[in-house]
Known about the structure:
- This protein is α/β, with parallel strands linked by helices.
- Helix content is 44%, strand content 24%.
- It is built from 21 helices and 22 strands.
- The chain has an 8-stranded mixed beta barrel, surrounded by 6 helices.
- Strand 18 (474-480), helix 17 and strand 19 form a beta-alpha-beta unit.
- Helix 8 runs antiparallel to helix 9.
- The radius of gyration is 37 Å and the shape is elongated.
- 35% of the residues are buried.
- Bound molecules: ligand C2E and magnesium ion (2 copies).
Amino acid sequence: MAQPATPASSGGQYPLSQEVLWRAYEHSHEAVLVSDGNNRIIAVNAAFTRLTGYGAAEVLGQNPRILSSGNAGPEFYAAMWEAIAQYDFWEGEIWDKRKDGSLYPKWLCISVVRDAAGQVENYVANFTDISASKQAADRLAQLAYHDALTHLPNRLAFESQLEHALRICSRENRQLALMLIDLDNFKNINDTLGHHVGDTLLQQVAGRLRESVRASDLVARLGGDEFVVVLPEIEGPLTAARVADKIQMALSENYRVNEHLLYTTPSIGISLFPGDGADAGILLRNADSAMYHAKSVGRNNHQFYASRMNEAAGERLQMENALRQAIAAIGLPESCQFSLHFQPQIAAKSGRVVGLEALLRWNSPIFGNISPLRFIPIAEETGLIQPLGDWVVWESCRLIHELRRLGLHDIRVAINISAQQLRHENLLLLVRGALACYELEPDAIELEITESTAMQNPEMTLNILDQLAAMGVKLAIDDFGTGHSSLAYLKHLPIKCLKLDRSFVSDIETDANDASICAAIIALGHNLGLELVAEGVETEMQSEFLTRLGCDYLQGYLFSKPKPFAEIVAYLQAQPPLSA
Ligand code: C2E
Ligand code: MG
Ligand code: MG
């Protein structure tokens, strides 16, 4: 192998022997390539052979161009040679090709050695493989711009991509839709089955979202259970609505995570560029209001932004604050804004009142009387359902005690329980404590849980339900028929009673389907040894029909609307005595 050229000047350092220079060159970890004034290779070191796969004999006399990957264009090389001509030095990143054809990035420094007359004598190039550090940098970029769980772009990447898309839309006079997607009840799943299950569910949601839209649409995860989809090429709101429908269908299909079969649905808020906002910040804020609106009108739907939604979101916040204040004052009877109303449950065969359902009422100084359908979801989202639900149990037991004191025995009171209450062993202590405090037998109360609650967190629910049942508390599934549960699954729960949802009952006279669903549920429920309660019975005909099908108990406006305690006492006292 040729000896490397000796630099023309030693730069003011101690003169080094040829021997030392040779060793430094040959043992260097950096690849070194020396070419002559015509850029023909005259020497390469051992590191060069290790890195490129070419032995010295294969490259001597050749132009270093043989290493080129072809990735860089002529302008790149022109700029490089210009710098070399001007400064006798160039350094930068470049992709080269090994002998085996594989490409790699290298950091290359080229110095020029001139003779006394200023003619180029040699070019000395040294370089290192920077694949590893490049990979690390790429990984860092991946981490900074991607959500590690779902591999979707994260908020940072989303913001810059949205800005970019908006610039193009504005230049080309196009419309864009931004959809904010929040999963309903995801918190329940996460809290009850654990983060691991929640994480897997989010990954599946991300996959379904990606599949529901075109490759050119942007899908990102903003954090938690919040996703965003940007459609940069829409003709108008209708296109966005169609995509939202598709997303809704895809996300509402059940999910299998380990042994769990899970359900979640999306609430989607949509804002449109340019109508609903000219920049990313405003579009996001407006999609957010629209998403809250979607939640407040019952979840699992999509809503477009309209400026009045800001008002609705403001109202929701105001209601949450009012609810907090009302709960803080719950212990002061004179300023308590909550009360319980009671609705009778009638034995279908005898027509006698056998029980009451306790239904929460809130009389707010700001909002007036508000339906539990409006404030219970807010209490559930904010965790306020815990203290509120505790109060309902205590107050129900207090009033049952009062009924007993008035001689009204054998009336069982059904209490509605939210999913979150079922997640805590607290519920057991609460029920035990309240029953003991008012000297009641466990069968004085019945707990109603909705079908979706029972399905959401089977293990935790089962454990707590088993303990409640073992205590002797009767358990019922509320709003049966609205969820996705199967009777086969419910068989494993220690429940005694199914409450057939009002929506089936209301149409039995006009809808043959609903009539046959009612008949089937009653028959199957009985087969499993369960009692059946029909909710929302409003007409004689419904009552007769359900009685004929063998429904055990009936509840609805036909018999009585929910009444305040004093009125329900009068109602019960007006019932004919047993012997009559
Ligand atoms: P739910 O448990 O299914 O209660 C039955 C609802 O149907 C009550 O509405 C009741 O007034 C209404 N209803 C009863 N009979 C008829 C009828 O013949 N026709 C019609 N159209 N409606 C009838 P309400 O009192 O507005 O309660 C709504 C929901 O709020 C309840 O549904 C329950 O899910 C929830 N809720 C009420 N109180 C509580 C509570 O203390 N805790 C919890 N977690 N939820 C509660
Ligand atoms: Mg109920
Ligand atoms: Mg119900």
